[in-house]
Description:
Elements: E1 8-12, H1 15-18, H2 31-36, H3 58-67, E2 72-76, H4 79-82, H5 92-107, E3 111-117, H6 123-126, H7 135-151, E4 157-162, H8 164-173, H9 184-207, E5 213-219, E6 223-225, H10 230-253, H11 258-266, H12 278-282, E7 288-292, E8 297-301, E9 317-320, H13 336-350, E10 355-359, H14 377-395, E11 400-406, E12 425-428, E13 433-436, H15 438-449
Parallel strand pairs: 1-2, 1-11, 2-3, 3-4, 4-5, 5-7, 6-8, 7-10, 10-11
Antiparallel strand pairs: 8-9, 12-13
Amino acid sequence: xxxxxxxxxxxxxxxxxxxxxxxxxxxxxxxxxxxxxxxxxxxxxxxxxxxxxxxxxxxxxxxxxxxxxxxxxxxxxxxxxxxxxxxxxxxxxxxxxxxxxxxxxxxxxxxxxxxxxxxxxxxxxxxxxxxxxxxxxxxxxxxxxxxxxxxxxxxxxxxxxxxxxxxxxxxxxxxxxxxxxxxxxxxxxxxxxxxxxxxxxxxxxxxxxxxxxxxxxxxxxxxxxxxxxxxxxxxxxxxxxxxxxxxxxxxxxxxxxxxxxxxxxxxxxxxxxxxxxxxxxxxxxxxxxxxxxxxxxxxxxxxxxxxxxxxxxxxxxxxxxxxxxxxxxxxxxxxxxxxxxxxxxxxxxxxxxxxxxxxxxxxxxxxxxxxxxxxxxxxxxxxxxxxxxxxxxxxxxxxxxxxxxxxxxxxxxxxxxxxxxxxxxxxxxxxxxxxxxxxxxxxxxxxxxxxxxx
Length: 454
Ligand code: FCB
């Protein structure tokens, strides 16, 4: 079970989920500050105001990464820390924070991987329509240029967007994430402007002429018919259209999936607002694709389903969790084969570009026992099974170059607040004490051996 010598093992986080210090260092408000402070949106009303206090505990967290022997660290830059209003004035203090982070990683021999957009849009841009407004794509490219100029000498990996499906559909279609809209036409507009933003940002970075690896991260989920029936297969295809092909097709084939767009048009929903030349920009080649994988969608046709806050309900489907599946604390089924299947499909249908798993992991009902230990055997077996699954896909020719476990620390899990723990390291939020879980120690050994044990 050895991996290639230069395989990169790391972990991932995102700015709003760990940094805290939302009013410090010149940071402006983001849509997640607004959303998390809106009563009724987040479990127990949790906010990211303090989160893991990573902004103040940077050195300690870097030392912990080094102790664990991590080879790479994927983190996101908070746009409103760099540009408090989302345009114009640059906040040097924000850039300085990320410079300290990047330098601290390099000093410890940890490769930095930057995500430019992990959902914390400056509120000032949302006030002008956010991702439903085409101007936001240009503002994103401008912001990318600022961060790239400041850090591209030291950061080899650049990811434009994290999970545009989540930002578009949970944020604009189903209302479960910021900015909380419930309107499919807005979700399609947001999709297009996010992808266009990716294309423009890519152009901006390429024009700097540096030899860095530039890519984008999608959350991909195989969509499977829940029962062996034609109607469920068609329903699964609709979900595949929205969850996967709506992003893969424009990025790699330069077109939107016709079946999905017609489905919405037939129901009076405007398609993505595509301008001249947009799809050429969106489909410009990337140096790598990042994939975040958690589970498969098991889909039933449900013609009478009322559109609501439930993802995909507007596609006349219901997704179910297989009764027999092991479930995580999120209620997500554990399905390592789905990851291998998706990797092989990407190679067959979309791209020969190198791939990185930029997130994978599970939530566990973790707790510190009376000795202060956190024993998360479920997380170890989950990761072990997924590592083995991707190794199998690599034997089938998939060019997988690295794996970022979600997550380094327990953190703010969006609408679930602090109730869901994904970290290799436990965070006691009352004291901000970090406790490496059993899985953290185990992962260190995996990294040393360059693969899970036989
Ligand atoms: C992904 C997000 C990440 C985290 C994990 C559990 O959708 O990118 O921030 O919340 O899920």
